[in-house]
Amino acid sequence: MPETAAVSIRNLSKSFDGIEVLRDVSLEVQPGEVVSILGSSGSGKSTLLRCINWLEQPDRGDIRIDGDRIGVSDTGKPMSRRELAGMRARLGMVFQGFNLWPHLSVLRNVTEAPIHVQGLSKAEAEERAMALLEKSRHGRQTRAVPHTLSGGQKQRVAIARALAMQPKVMLFDEPTSALDPELVGEVLGVIKDLSKEGYTMVLVTHEMEFARAVSDQVVFLDKGIIIEKSHPSEFFENPKTDRVRRFLELEAPAV
Ligand SMILES: Nc1ncnc2c1ncn2[C@@H]1O[C@H](COP(=O)(O)OP(=O)(O)OP(=O)(O)O)[C@@H](O)[C@H]1O
């Protein structure tokens, strides 16, 4: 079982250029829970996810990982880089565009942070990396450099790299959006395995069937406001608002 953490988001608001893209967003994620964030393009999904690890700084509200606030120290001042790095180490993030280091081999992409941030020896980091590359179904093709891999392989390496820092929460920002359709399933399969293992996960996704299958909670954002938050069976079978009903008709006519 991985070590997991709760995420608590309270009254979060965020504007860009005077336009509010998140409005008073609150969300509780229990340890081991999988939460999918759905919504139309521009509704604020990625911004919400990026606020959780302070890649975006919210204007108001707070975010706690296992009760500890990120971004702002106990005295109310902005966290130092070091304090922030300590909080961020609890969070693993997988982006739409993989963000692998292009000049490093698969193995080194996964071992760099454990060696340089956590102080693991090369041998320890490689042992951990090999196990995680197996877990993410990448297998043993570890000397390749990223440009020789398919999008699906890159994303599975990116997942292994995020897991290598032993995060307590995994954040996924549209992890399959940049993939050819035939590669989507293999990446979703890995994420599904992680959900079964008990990882706390927050996912932004457009994969409705997947969200329905893996989530404990589905959150729907509309213009920066959470308008529905429910169990997937309720969300997909009995949405409370016309807005979600319309969205589901457009996005997932088969559901
Ligand atoms: N760094 C930024 N500077 C200015 N505006 C931004 C920035 N990041 C996001 N926005 C704006 O905030 C709004 C919400 O963007 P966000 O990426 O969170 O939406 P989204 O729901 O994830 O959309 P998509 O599904 O298309 O990825 C959009 O109008 C976007 O243009």
From TrEMBL:
The keyword Isomerase does not apply. It is found in: Cell inner membrane. Residues 7-248 form the ABC transporter domain. GO terms for molecular function: ATP binding. Belongs to the ABC transporter superfamily. It comes from the Bacteria. This is Histidine/lysine/arginine/ornithine ABC transporter ATP-binding protein HisP. Keywords: Amino-acid transport, ATP-binding, Cell membrane, Membrane, Nucleotide-binding, Transport. PANTHER family: AMINO ACID IMPORT ATP-BINDING PROTEIN, GLUTAMATE_ASPARTATE IMPORT ATP-BINDING PROTEIN GLTL. It is a peripheral membrane protein. It comes from Vreelandella olivaria. The keyword DNA damage does not apply. CDD domains: ABC_HisP_GlnQ.
